[in-house]
Amino acid sequence: MDRKEANFISSFGATSCTVACASTTQGTPYNARLDTKCDSYYEVKVTDLKPGGSLGVGLVTNDGFQPGWKTKGCFFNGNISNGSAGLIIGFGNKIKVGSVVGVRLMRVDRKCTIIFYHDGQCLGTGFSLDNNSDEFYPCIHVDGSTTVSFSNPAAPSVFERELSNHDNPYSGHWSIEQFFVGPELGEIPASSKVNIQREGDGYRLVIKSFNSFSTSFIITGKAEAFDLIKFTGACIATKMMPPPEFVELEKVIVKALNDDGGFKKIIVSDSGRLILSGPTAEVICSRYVQTFEPVTSIN
Asked: Which of 267, 285, 281, 287 is nearest to 187 (CA)?
């Protein structure tokens, strides 16, 4: 089916089909759903998504399926959304061409649990709705233009959130185990999180202490087993007043994320630890699975 009315409520009955649709007005989403209700699991493969567009994949009730922003449902678009507002930010990676998004509906008595999957990775529970006996239908929520294929493969057996899949060893969420500073590299307490993501030809690095500190870097060469890095932007930080126990740590973080004397090399060790090292600072991190409390209402 190919539809292009920005606010047209479209229903089509199939368990396996390809759908092309578009919103004709930028910023006004188009919604399309299957007439066949979801009893367990379905997948959507994105074969086309025009630049600047966005796509949400999820479930909607018959009454919740409305034109444009009026639709109320359970969607994943990188965030968890009810169709009009982001309810959990940063739940997963943004949907793009080639993405495969799975939606699992599980019922126990009148409790409804909705679990999302992205490119084979379980993202965990996005919605946990008590006292709910509504019938849900597969639905896409489009701003722009897309082509997707619906299918009904066997449901995954994994229900808990998994470590992110990445095409390089550095990207993802990390938890700082040890933080060493000074020429003598003495250890200081540091209950902080690190997030590294690909950004063009380089990486975006964020350290979350009391404040958040972010910068970007590129890999410039090798030094034995390490990759050499160079910061390509200034360290940007939020400006909240930290409690006394965070003051010295955050001064150290700023220096560590500066090209003058900061981290110079990076590696993921054989034991799976991320190490960022420089002349006056070194951090050792372990993989961290970020968890989220599920949404309990879509209204």
From this structure: 281
Range of 251's domain?
Answer: 172-287
Q: The pTM is what? A: 0.73
Q: What integer pLDDT is reported at residue 182 of this predicted model?
A: 78
Average pLDDT score, the chain: 90
Neighbours of 214 (CB within 10 A): 17
Same domain, 180 and 126: no
Same domain for 136 and 182: no
For the four alpha carbons of 223, 230, 193 and 243, in that order, the dihedral sign comes to positive
Token pair belonging to 153: 């493969």
Burial of 186 (0-12, 13-18, 19+ CB in 10 A): exposed
pLDDT, residue 4, reads 41
Which residue has tokens 């879509």?
298
Residues 72, 33, 131, 129: is their CA dihedral positive or negative?
A: negative
163 in a domain, yes or no?
Answer: no
The number of beta carbons lying within 10 Å of the beta carbon of residue 72 is: 18
Could you tell me the pLDDT band of residue 139, with boundaries at 50, 70 and 90?
A: very high
294 within domain boundaries: no
Shared domain for 10 and 145, answered yes or no, is yes
Tokens of 72: 């109320």
CATH number at residue 27: 2.60.120.920
- CATH number of the domain bearing residue 275: 2.40.128.270
242 HSE (CA, 13 A, CB side): 17
**Inside any domain, residue 167:** no
Residue 7: which pLDDT band, with cuts at 50, 70 and 90? very low
Do residues 97 and 55 make contact, with C-beta atoms less than 8 angstroms apart?
A: no
- 238 with 134, same domain? no
